[in-house]
Specification:
The complex is a heterodimer.
Chain A: H1 2-33, H2 40-51, E1 56-58, E2 61-64, E3 68-71, E4 75-81, E5 91-98, E6 105-110, E7 119-124, E8 130-138, E9 143-154
Chain B: E1 4-7, E2 11-12, E3 17-24, E4 46-53, E5 56-63, E6 72-78, E7 83-91, E8 96-105
The chains are: A alpha+beta, B mainly beta.
Chain lengths: ~160, ~110
């Protein structure tokens, strides 16, 4: 009798302890690692933060990237905007966003009329096959965008090891 | 902090649009990975880049963890006058790497 009770107590204690431990681990992970991926909601919020209430129109912007990405750790991407780049009419900024990386932002680039050409090439990480969006802010305050759907066969390392 | 490769033309005609290519060695640790022992690896990325032409900012970038390791950037500027083009990268630890290139404009 005593023996059974003891065993039961131990088992209950063990389970409760394990539950607390698991809960603790889960909470810690949430705090340090954050959400596993930027959902399209997070992307929309990041875009809203940049453009405010302004309308984003399609056009003027072009994205050059490989449609099939072998290695998500390094993806060549070129974003160019059709603009005369004069003091009166030039591209002020190019913002690049993604859908499924842990963070929606990729990079922000700021130009002036002295850039001569609104074009930027860089290499980015992609955690999954997803849509990449580029938004250009012109000197008159208007926003233009383009997007590209990229298929990634080997994703960029997100979880570690 | 790092080794950097830059490509700026030595000579250009006045008003010519020149391409500047930059590559710098940096881990660009995202902050989302864990070590073998399960500890989160703290974020360490180059978060800012500035290009100045004789002191005037002609191009500026804010980078996020989605930029690949050893960041590469290529961009353009107008060759306005002879002088010095300065490129500087700043990382999360506050370390700044600066490279300069002389350009002769005819």
């Amino acid at each position: 009798m005593d023996h059974r009770r003891l065993r039961g107590a131990t088992r209950r204690g063990f389970l409760a302890g394990a539950g607390r431990l698991a809960g603790g681990l889960g909470a810690a992970q949430l705090i340090t690692v954050g959400p596993a991926a930027a959902t399209p909601d997070a992307m929309a919020a990041a875009i809203r933060y940049v453009v405010g209430e302004a309308e984003v129109r399609d056009g003027k912007v072009s994205i050059e990237a490989p449609p099939l990405v072998e290695n998500g750790n390094s993806v060549s991407i070129t974003v160019a905007v059709d603009s005369p780049m004069t003091p009166a009419d030039h591209v002020a900024s190019i913002y690049i966003f993604n859908e499924k990386n842990p963070q929606p932002n990729v990079a922000n680039f700021h130009f002036g009329p002295r850039a001569g050409r609104a074009s930027i090439s860089t290499r980015i990480r992609l955690a999954d096959s997803q849509k990449v969006l580029a938004i250009a802010k012109l000197s008159d305050g208007s926003f233009w965008s383009a997007s590209a759907d990229l298929i990634v066969t080997i994703a960029a390392c997100v979880e570690g090891t | 902090m790092a080794q950097a490769l830059i490509n700026v033309p030595f000579k250009a005609r006045r008003g010519e649009i020149i391409e500047i290519k930059t590559l710098i060695s940096h881990v660009m640790e995202t902050g989302y990975r864990r070590s073998n022992s399960g500890e989160p690896i703290p974020r360490d990325i180059i978060n800012a880049f500035v290009c100045t032409y004789n002191g005037d900012v002609v191009f500026r970038a804010e980078l996020f963890p989605a930029i690949a390791a050893n960041p590469f950037m290529s961009f353009f500027t107008v060759a306005t006058e002879s002088g010095v083009i300065t490129l500087s990268w700043t990382d999360d630890k506050g370390a700044t790497e600066v490279r300069t290139a002389k350009i002769t404009v005819e």
